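Rotation project, supervised by the postdoc (A.L.). Task for the rotation student: set up a whole-complex structure prediction and record inputs and outputs verbatim in this book. Inputs entered:
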Amino acid sequence: MFYSDGKLQYPVVVEKPDPLFARALQQAIGGVEGEIRVCMQYFFQAMGARGNPKFRDLLLNTATEEIGHIEMLATAVALNLEGAPVGLKDEIADDPIASSVLGGTNLKNFLSAGMSAMPVDSDGVPFDMSHVYASGNIAADMTANIAAESTGRVLAVRLYNMTTDPGMKDMLQFLIARDTMHQNQWMAALEELGGPTGAFPIPNSHPQAEEKQEFSYSFFSHLLNGEPPTGRWSTGPSVDGKGEFSVVNSEPMGQKPVLPPARPRGGAQAEQI
Amino acid sequence: MFYSDGKLQYPVVVEKPDPLFARALQQAIGGVEGEIRVCMQYFFQAMGARGNPKFRDLLLNTATEEIGHIEMLATAVALNLEGAPVGLKDEIADDPIASSVLGGTNLKNFLSAGMSAMPVDSDGVPFDMSHVYASGNIAADMTANIAAESTGRVLAVRLYNMTTDPGMKDMLQFLIARDTMHQNQWMAALEELGGPTGAFPIPNSHPQAEEKQEFSYSFFSHLLNGEPPTGRWSTGPSVDGKGEFSVVNSEPMGQKPVLPPARPRGGAQAEQI
Amino acid sequence: MFYSDGKLQYPVVVEKPDPLFARALQQAIGGVEGEIRVCMQYFFQAMGARGNPKFRDLLLNTATEEIGHIEMLATAVALNLEGAPVGLKDEIADDPIASSVLGGTNLKNFLSAGMSAMPVDSDGVPFDMSHVYASGNIAADMTANIAAESTGRVLAVRLYNMTTDPGMKDMLQFLIARDTMHQNQWMAALEELGGPTGAFPIPNSHPQAEEKQEFSYSFFSHLLNGEPPTGRWSTGPSVDGKGEFSVVNSEPMGQKPVLPPARPRGGAQAEQI
Amino acid sequence: MFYSDGKLQYPVVVEKPDPLFARALQQAIGGVEGEIRVCMQYFFQAMGARGNPKFRDLLLNTATEEIGHIEMLATAVALNLEGAPVGLKDEIADDPIASSVLGGTNLKNFLSAGMSAMPVDSDGVPFDMSHVYASGNIAADMTANIAAESTGRVLAVRLYNMTTDPGMKDMLQFLIARDTMHQNQWMAALEELGGPTGAFPIPNSHPQAEEKQEFSYSFFSHLLNGEPPTGRWSTGPSVDGKGEFSVVNSEPMGQKPVLPPARPRGGAQAEQI
Amino acid sequence: MFYSDGKLQYPVVVEKPDPLFARALQQAIGGVEGEIRVCMQYFFQAMGARGNPKFRDLLLNTATEEIGHIEMLATAVALNLEGAPVGLKDEIADDPIASSVLGGTNLKNFLSAGMSAMPVDSDGVPFDMSHVYASGNIAADMTANIAAESTGRVLAVRLYNMTTDPGMKDMLQFLIARDTMHQNQWMAALEELGGPTGAFPIPNSHPQAEEKQEFSYSFFSHLLNGEPPTGRWSTGPSVDGKGEFSVVNSEPMGQKPVLPPARPRGGAQAEQI
Amino acid sequence: MFYSDGKLQYPVVVEKPDPLFARALQQAIGGVEGEIRVCMQYFFQAMGARGNPKFRDLLLNTATEEIGHIEMLATAVALNLEGAPVGLKDEIADDPIASSVLGGTNLKNFLSAGMSAMPVDSDGVPFDMSHVYASGNIAADMTANIAAESTGRVLAVRLYNMTTDPGMKDMLQFLIARDTMHQNQWMAALEELGGPTGAFPIPNSHPQAEEKQEFSYSFFSHLLNGEPPTGRWSTGPSVDGKGEFSVVNSEPMGQKPVLPPARPRGGAQAEQI
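Outputs recorded:
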């Protein structure tokens, strides 16, 4: 069960409203790297967490923090939309800055939401919950969370570098710091689960004897007329410590597939039957 | 530029067609953990790769391999659909197995595709390209790829354990092995990029002095009436080696937000203006 | 069965084409508050209407009117796109107004539709039919329709206040008037179905004795460190006339959920099994 | 800011797991009438609430309660999936009940989530956030909420009547009761905002003198060869108290629209230019 | 403007309700080959039709007919859902046919629509309006319409062959006949627009002198280790009469692309800058 | 299986980067007329091709070429984004051109992809794989391909006419030429399949004796108060050579549908039962 106190986790101040920046901030709310995504991802991972209950607590706890981040960003969007030109057209017709500002916003923030935040990205595309990765495998979930916080911090840094508003920079410095923690936190959890040699290959419950081990650590080259790229992945012990990397020129092992004729009453052309 | 030889990377044999398994295999084609996703993700990451060109080659190479995996799985779906009951209803009306098989398939595989594979998941939902994570940050991309191959191998293992068909088990043993390699390969690439202490926090180009460092390694507890979960994330040096973990009871630092009144002609109720 | 006469329900005149306004008008076609939505919603509600047939007729009739509104708006979009700058770039390179206009349009109106309307919203997102609420419960359908016409009229008013074109203002005055009627019409239908005390709680066919009536009229407060908001909802008889409002501090009645271990071959980590 | 105690608002007990019912329950999580929708809708309405702050508190409070409903339902889905047949196919091949159960589930609950809940509906379609109606008009928002709770209670009643499990019936009796309260609560809020004669037509800030009032209370009949349906909407004072209903045979007032020729270099056929 | 008489274009009779067939019929309503799609496609093509107005009339006329087809199919879905097992679970628990029927339906038809049709496909996926192809080029539109009616008739034939219900077969015989007409009608329109040699390559307004004509009629072979497929496309005059087909081994004409380094403050890793 | 050489099929040169044109080019990557669509469409058609194997080869070959077109366009997008204004806001605040450029881009190209291409359209909407038409009927597939290449060439021509950059014009001249070939190629394949009189009506395997042939070649007029549009479709032999066109005034042959009452416990209102 959840509770709220209606206050913001960290102050949100906008000194000079900037509707274009409001649009950019929408990416941090409803973008695939945004806060709705991490909030819901941690929440549903918690819902499906089996095994040691501390991971469930960890996930639920951070999901709860993230709701507050959506709250902060939604406040920031609304405050940045103050002063945006949406009044009578006459006022902006000959003003290129105003025109470009109006043209550069997600019009839905005006037309659908009355100058407020929406669960959409910076191009007005609504967030879709298929981005909630919750696999039932706790280690796979941790990799998804590291990835989410990595792209999340990249986004926050880009937003931070787009604005000169002191209030917005301050808020983003806080959110960037939280992303630093969350990257570390999920890496720490993965370490608890065994790290590269203990948790990988994920799922570690699958007996590797049942996979085609001759292909488990081979880099297949599909490049014509060129050398395959070499690096840590092409030679030496594998990162999971269970094999040796090698490079192989990929050759087809199977044949050209041929499907049987279509069924007589299956809607194909007569020639296909 | 791309080339094809029309042959399969690995043999695809179905001994006893199973339409329910065809439906399950669709998840590996058009699911968010599926092969279209990794193929397109590596492809678009290659398209945006800046810096050392070997990462571009690495990504493009593996994207090219993955097209062949879609090809294998699409063949497997079509072969598993052979023999499915879609003829005249009379033939299946009193046959509960046939009824349940028909009911248990994605009908679009019959109705839209004429007993062939589609770019949809196991519930018939089309793949949507927003799942292609390509951030322009090469390390963030690697974390996304490790996550994709982790959930991908989890899926392949689940499929492997759902079937007893020798041909299908053989094919999946190959795909599971490739996922093992790809998990290792992207971890290896991340290691080349500096690993936990060199690449993190991602992006490592952002000066940490500009984030609120007092919050960068604190676990904020949002749990009421309970102890926060402890582990590697709550004490000791951070995984990125740049801080010290601590646990903090989260308290609001901001105030209750109050938005200004609505604009007179902005479509709000009169009471809001 | 349907018929058309090819004429517009109300004149559509654009005195001075305005491509930015064309973009805004798209929200009234393909936005979630738009005309495709109400048209299809009333149509599918009619298709599932059971009971007194006059509601089916009412719904089908208004669905039929709404097709004509899409027709009007699509005409308005095409006329507003006349004169938009999409020719050779040279002509607009140094013209900030033209640049901002081009940048501020949904490019798909040019690139995909050749300067015509599309079934997309003001940010170019296609309408998706999941917004067609048709529940099979005639009273629930009426509440959905009141809501649709309320947000629809809010949108029309916002559009009306964005333009100074006399033709567009005239057309919107007509559409706003029709939304007034439709709000009233669906409220009238809800009144015929019994109004607050007869139709609610919806569905009124469910015996309230079978719900946990001790919680049926309680406002649960989830706010920490603050007073719950008071109003008509916190004290006195309930609006449906079947209970008495009260305020309760919400406390968990259930326990922490614990899921059983994962299955041995279910793709989880070994630690979860 | 938000907090959680990890406990359920109301006990969730499943006596006899039922995978088909798990699928049905998914509609209450990720369906358009489900709990994610109301939770996010109230949350974003709060974020955009302007005017009397008690509406913001009211919305935020109930959003907070709804997170706990997602938690209850996600727990119920996972518990109902226990015992579902997803092991080796041999075990179910000749068992029509098992086959039909497997066929009748959303396979993603197995394949993607490892026997856990997902933010998808009962057919496996992910929830999409465009269903979050938050208009910036507080009265329009209330109508959207009444509609959401009406379809929500209809759904809960249907689920209640689909199951005989005592634990599930008990949980649903609680949720149905909460929907009763929430229908009443939003009707109460609408009453505070003036009710039919004070709040309508929404938005009440738009001067009705600026709409085409001759069409504001007319039922336009589009039915050929038949009588228009009569009722409270066809005669007498309008529900908003500002007009008189009448019935009018709809006639086109506009002309056939003719678009100008296509532009020479706009990608049309030569005949269209 | 549009009118309706509430009657069906052709009788819809269901002798023996079949909920599985109801699910299949949903594809013809909300599938990408379905009637909503053709209806809306012709409608929006009409809205953007420039040039000879008879094409606009033709499109609007057939759009109007198609609304009636949705009406017929929605009626057929509702009638087929009569008798479906959705009551108390006890009644079906030990009945494999009933279980498989319940499992084999789109549950949303029960849970969301109360045993009625929805604008979704046979797997419950809502129709999305991006499938409305209306290009502003009248000839391109005709090719899209021929394609739509071709897949539409394929679907109708598949449905016809899935059922033995005389009423349903009769209805589908009518719809198949209409698809025959509509295929012919759009081919006829394309003939009026010049046919293969007059209308193609589409758009015919683009001066072919401005394309790289050395590649305009060459079949590029991308097949390794095999002969390119030969046929009408590999030799002889092109179908549009403006060139000669040839076969060419595809070779890269461009170089390996190299992007410049990332920007210093653009969120990339330090190594990429 | 697939191979790549990392080189571009045709040179991609951008002389003067233009971020607005980058946005427009996104339509050719991730728009419904774009290259991902044709690539995947031909690929999945190949996967489901039954009958003469040369059609499978033809489809797979051209799918392989199209991957290279995505590669070219993704390179073009990244090169056009060079120089786009996304740095500190101060630098662009008083520069209307820079403001309009920033406002006119898909912000996701900056925020999510770090100045690279994405699988989205020109308004930032991700491509969704339901646009992959692969019907299992080889002739229907060819019509879908002719349509795809027709809208594709229309788009390429519009892009060609939007830019003055010599490099971009050169690249588009190549792509326009390839679209010319592909239109011709699929028409040629349709000719091999019998052309209008042999392949149509599609599917040609359905016995026309089983359709309601009295309606197979009739133009039904649904226009009130007007003459039906006449043309090649209204009189003379049908294009498929199997009937004679005629014009008929459409009259309802069916009755008003009446659904039975709702079920007692099905969530309807009491009045509907």
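Student's summary: The mean pLDDT of chain D is 94.
Supervisor addendum: The interface with chain F takes residues 154-155, 157-158, 161, 265-267 of chain D (CB under 8 Å).
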